[in-house]
Specification:
Structural class: mainly beta
Strand order of the largest sheet: 6-10-7-11-12
Largest sheet: 5 strands, mixed, barrel
Order of helices and strands: EEEEEEEEEEHEEH
Strand content: 25-35%
Number of strands: 12
Radius of gyration: 16 Å
Shape: globular
Length: 191
Amino acid sequence: MDVTGIYYIEGGIVNTVTVTAHLNLNQASGSSKMNNYFNVFVYGTLKSGEPNHHWFSKGNGHYKLLCNAQITEKYPLIIATEYNIPFLLYSPGIGNYVKGEVYEVDKTVLANLDILEDHPNFYVRELYTVKNLDGGGDLTAWIYFIKNFKSELLKRPMYENYSSDGEHGLKYVIRYTQVNRFNLSNLIQDN
């Protein structure tokens, strides 16, 4: 299923770039309630109280916070670029057991998140088991990883938990104020 989205108007600035998200809804894992909903683990600016959390409410889709969670394998969560963006690098066994939140979403919200994350061109969304930190059992959830990245990114500080207002002092630059945001792949990806 292809879903085309147009970025939003925020702070009086219009950002009208059109991108297409490709959803593969044939993969039943990571979904619940007869494949109408999907679990997504978020670890950065999509968490509640963070700058991109509003992407869950774009359109008329369904989303609901299920639990606080933690990935079950170590991965590096870094903050990089001049915009202080959190990235979860696909390098199993390096980094921390990253903490975040699991949301139940429908295909509309999942498509919006794919647009934000530029899946599958920049981030790659894959299914993983996460530990429910609120006392329930483990869950299968989609996680957005950067799989193609420059090796020097592994030299950056790695975090267990992200907040734009964290002690690291690297406040996220709001998306609509990012001047060169479409050059991010050149800064992050290993070409």
